[in-house]
Specification:
Elements (H helix, E strand, L loop, with lengths): L15 E4 L3 E6 L17 H8 L4 E2 L8 E7 L2 H12 L4 E9 L6 E5 L2 E3 L7 E3 L7 E10 L2 E8 L6 H8 L13 H5 L6 E9 L6 E5 L5
Parallel strand pairs: 4-11
Antiparallel strand pairs: 1-2, 2-4, 3-4, 5-10, 5-11, 6-9, 7-8, 9-10, 11-12
Length: about 220
């Protein structure tokens, strides 16, 4: 059984990129949970840090603990409902940057592989014909030192989708201590996955909002 060692970064405590009466947008660092788990030691997370300053902050979507990048939070029930509906109905646009093992044979493509829970190794996920539809568009941005920097645009939002899809292609994301082998784990100090941009409709004004944060690797 894998032991989860949680030591969330404290600098910066919060990287707030935008705030108004309805939403808050942050740049979440790698190593910080999006929301608390059951264990008391997981209480320190992006959500609780925001709630210490803005008590009505509401979680509407998640990034994996080791994934960094742009997240949006709601500040009232109307905003929560609007944003959650947009995520559920695939009305948002998300772009991730990942550094992966090896050189992809095709410069771009679509990964259409259903994903299901790996019941023998929870909470891992796996490619399965009986799973839920999962689609990811990818494009190679750069290749060097035997590895590739890729842009990933998920159409669906399955748990661990990008990590499982890249693994299925034979190009695990560097630093992935959950799905990668020892070579992959040692290749980077953190999971090389970053939510670089997020586009959604503002829940009150109806304006298209887009926020970005350049990948740190």
């Amino acid at each position: 059984m894998q032991i989860f060692s949680y030591q969330p970064p404290s600098i910066p405590w919060l990287d707030i990129r935008y705030i108004d009466r309805d939403i808050i947008v942050i740049n979440k660092p790698s190593g910080l949970l999006s929301n608390p788990g059951i264990a008391e030691y997981t209480h320190d997370c992006a959500l609780t840090r925001l709630q210490q300053r803005f008590k009505n902050t509401i979680l509407v979507h998640r990034l994996d603990c080791t994934t960094s990048g742009i997240m949006v939070f709601a500040r009232n029930k109307k905003a929560e409902s609007s944003l959650k509906t947009q995520f559920q109905n695939r009305q948002t646009a998300k772009t991730y940057i990942a550094e992966v093992q090896g050189l992809l044979s095709e410069p771009s493509g679509v990964i259409d592989l259903a994903i299901a829970a790996d019941k023998e190794n929870p909470p891992k996920q796996m490619v399965s014909e009986t799973g839920k539809s999962a689609i990811t568009h990818y494009q190679v941005l750069q290749q060097n030192d035997g590895n590739s920097l890729v842009e990933l645009k998920p159409v669906t939002g399955r748990t661990h989708q990008l990590r499982v899809h890249m693994l299925a292609l034979g190009h695990a994301i560097l630093g992935d201590d959950f799905y990668g082998d020892e070579t992959v784990i040692r290749a980077a100090k953190r999971l090389q996955l970053h939510a670089q941009s997020l586009q959604f409709t503002h829940p009150y004004s109806g304006k298209i909002m887009e926020f970005s944060s350049k990948h740190p690797f």
